Predict the 3D structure of the following.
Amino acid sequence: QVHALSTGKAVITASVSETSKYAAASASYTVYVTIDGGDPPMPTGNTYVKVTMEPRDWTGTYLVVYENGNQAYVLDASRSTIDASCNYVVADIEQSEIAASTDVNDASLVVTGVADGYTLRTSSGLYLTTEDGKKISAGQNPYSFLLSLDSDGAVIRPVKRSSVNLMYNSSWKGFRFYSSGQQPIQLYRRTEADHIDVIQNSKFKIA
């Protein structure tokens, strides 16, 4: 049983680690609590959740994020010139989640598995690439990356240039590929809550 002691949003998440037989997985139950007669929020269930366990398959829709406290600098690969200072949109981080919005969704990347890794497709239909191992660009042809997690966060390495990793440069204020010396990034995966309830009572139980 779960007891709610005040109004607001509560997210109940159950997760399991990967084993030799099963992939890592999680499920969420989101509850919004208001006082009797209060106006409930209009939740959509669409959020981006921080990836903290490496999945067996990275296929999905993600945000590339530099965490600046409770603010997320989200790489905006939908812009016409990706390799530029401040190449991100800003969103709020709440309980390791980023709410979906038009700007955030436009900045997302669709990750698809291929023979030698994964492609990262922008919302404009182009593929994330790097021609020189530093600058970010996007083109018509698929370009493969290797995805993983380390102790600092997410690792996105071009298959053809595996010595560099997508990172955030806090001096230049933007995302580029570097071998070291810059800020780590995080991946947030788009998910839809399995259950969303709005309960208009500050005293209740979930059994």
